[in-house]
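Data availability (excerpt). The following record was deposited with the supplementary files.
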Amino acid sequence: MMADPIDDAIALAQQAAFQAVPAGSAKVVPMRASLSGVPSGPVCVTAESFLADTEAPAWVIEGLLQTNYVYALTAPTNHGKTAVSLVMALAVAAGKPFAGMEVGKGNALILCGENQDGFRLRMRATMDSLGITMADIKNSVFVLPKAGSLLLLLEQIKKDAEAMGNLSLVLVDTSVAFFSGDNENDNNQAYTHAAALRELSLLPGKPAVLVNCHPASGAAKDMTRDSCVPRGGSAFLNEIDTNLMVWSDGALAELHWMRKKRGPDFAPISFEYKPVNVMHQGVECQTIVAEHVDEDRVRYIRTKHRELDARVLWVLYNNPNGTFRDWCHDSGLVIRSGKKAGEAHLSGITRILERLKKYKLAEHTDRDGWILTAKGKEEAKDIR
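Predicted structure:
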């Protein structure tokens, strides 16, 4: 059988992109693929032949995740990208709807490169939240429980995948945990990392690849929805198919997309984060789960949080020199259950203060701490 010149060209390009790396190397600094070694002979085909290879879109999650596509899921720290992506992966593995969207039941591979113990707790809690038992996913979820260079791991992952059956989804948590180079901002390295992630979409079953990403660098306080794109060289965003985004305002989180989208649009999907306790080796551990909420619940939560914001605004106006704990107790922000029931809800008051800051009703200074702005004081006067 004669060699296919197109296959030869692709093989040479991949060989240039994924240079051989000695075992045990600490870092990989790959180079962008070069086509300088393309063999002679025809590499172009007729339009008829090209169009004959058209494949209809196949959905892993209807309207959201498509097979053979690479998706970034970008969110700042504590905005819930791991919580939301876990719901997707477990819904696929168990064949349960995701946020009302139809899901094709299939196998999922999770590359868990960050905080494995925390991930285990959240995975257990998410299974409980979705009503999924271990029997439901016993032979449909597989995990790589360590970080490492994806370029060095890729061949072994391919071998392991042969025993998994067809995969529907590969979840990578996180992109940086499997980065192979030493400089995310270098476009050659960023491109090669994205190309390695695309190799995962060629595993048996041609799975969708969902990659949890940290956003472009910058102070957390300056982050906005519009800046929620994967950090590093722009070649990474250019190479992937879609940049999904999770953004939390402290009351609700929203899953949508930002800057780049291939395929049909979809309406933003809302989630509520709920703290839950998980027993592990006789110890009660707390984590959070993401639960999809419908429009009625969204309206209820928005109304409730406006009331909380107003209550905290009033408390700061009347007790500007109070402590966080004073403000929590005066506004009724206390933990409702568990071992810490009745204690000040410090994370809750912090989120509300950040919201008030966003609306220019409060500000934080090194000298005075949290204080109301002139606008905040005027609004506080109108509350009662």
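Summary of structural features: Residues 295-318 form the longest helix (24 residues).
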